[in-house]
């Protein structure tokens, strides 16, 4: 078993730091995920989700890991991550309220169709992948689609969505549903208040290659940003930081295809999706 040691602290975001420490301890122990699960009498899939940052699990499991690894701080890290998760929910609720009031929205998405442009089937598969099922799944899908209603109202916000070409090269498994999603994206791009642009993979990496960012222009004239990386999510309201993010966004927009060329590219991906023989 590994000796007692101080937490590494390489990651500053509590949930990511907790997951990082779990991975480090298991690798040091030389145990596989399945061996850890057997040792603590929990399904190893729970441990895997904790190590990936998808789940915090409960205190009983964390205490069992503290015993297994001979540590005395995992429960403390878990409690800090739990508090941060609660703060995240408050920040995200505040962001949702702002999004509902925004007069314009600018999005950069490196890996997924943004929620405001998702079809029901696409949203459902993403949420299922994240572990949601049953009534919780339906509520989350309905909530996500409900956000889209503002785009078709009497005074809809202006929306510009910049997508990496990687988004179009990452289809959901059901081909018919993927076709529906691409059609929805094309239909949205035809609306007068929506611009969709694609950044070709051939342009290479850029400053936002691994960062989702969403800018909201609020009625009083200020702009806020919501950013997500592989390790953290944050609501940014400080003016200087928002301006720096906006400059990065503008540089990415300069590398994107024009709206017309982007629609043509999306249409090309749609034509490449195999048709369901039953529908031909």
UniProtKB/TrEMBL annotation:
Entry-linked CDD domains: HTH_XRE
GO molecular function: DNA binding
Pfam families: DUF5753, HTH_31
Domain of life: Bacteria
Location of the HTH cro/C1-type domain: 22-74
Record's protein name: Helix-turn-helix domain-containing protein
Organism: Streptomyces lonarensis
């Amino acid at each position: 078993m590994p000796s007692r040691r101080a937490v590494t602290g390489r990651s500053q975001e509590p949930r990511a730091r907790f997951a990082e420490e779990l991975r480090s301890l298991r690798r040091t122990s030389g145990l596989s995920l399945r061996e850890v699960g057997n040792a603590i009498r929990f399904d190893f899939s729970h441990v895997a989700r904790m190590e990936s940052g998808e789940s915090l699990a409960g205190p009983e499991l964390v205490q069992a890991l503290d015993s297994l690894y001979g540590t005395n701080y995992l429960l403390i890290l878990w409690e800090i991550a739990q508090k941060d998760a609660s703060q995240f929910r408050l920040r995200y609720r505040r962001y949702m309220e702002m999004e509902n009031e925004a007069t314009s929205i600018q999005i950069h998405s490196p890996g997924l169709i943004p929620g405001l442009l998702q079809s029901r089937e696409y949203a459902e598969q993403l949420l299922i992948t994240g572990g949601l099922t049953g009534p919780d799944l339906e509520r989350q899908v309905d909530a996500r689609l409900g956000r889209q209603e503002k785009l078709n109202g009497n005074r809809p916000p202006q929306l510009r969505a910049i997508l990496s070409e990687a988004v179009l090269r990452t289809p959901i498994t059901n081909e018919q549903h993927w076709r529906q999603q691409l059609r929805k994206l094309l239909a949205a791009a035809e609306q007068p208040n929506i611009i969709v642009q694609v950044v070709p993979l051939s342009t290479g990496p850029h400053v936002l290659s691994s960062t989702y960012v969403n800018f909201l222009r609020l009625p009083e004239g200020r702009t806020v940003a919501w950013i997500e990386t592989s390790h953290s999510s944050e609501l940014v309201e400080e003016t200087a930081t928002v301006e720096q993010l906006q400059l990065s966004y503008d540089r990415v927009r300069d590398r994107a295809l024009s709206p017309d060329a982007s629609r043509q590219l999306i249409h090309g991906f749609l034509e490449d999706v195999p048709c369901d023989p039953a529908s031909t």
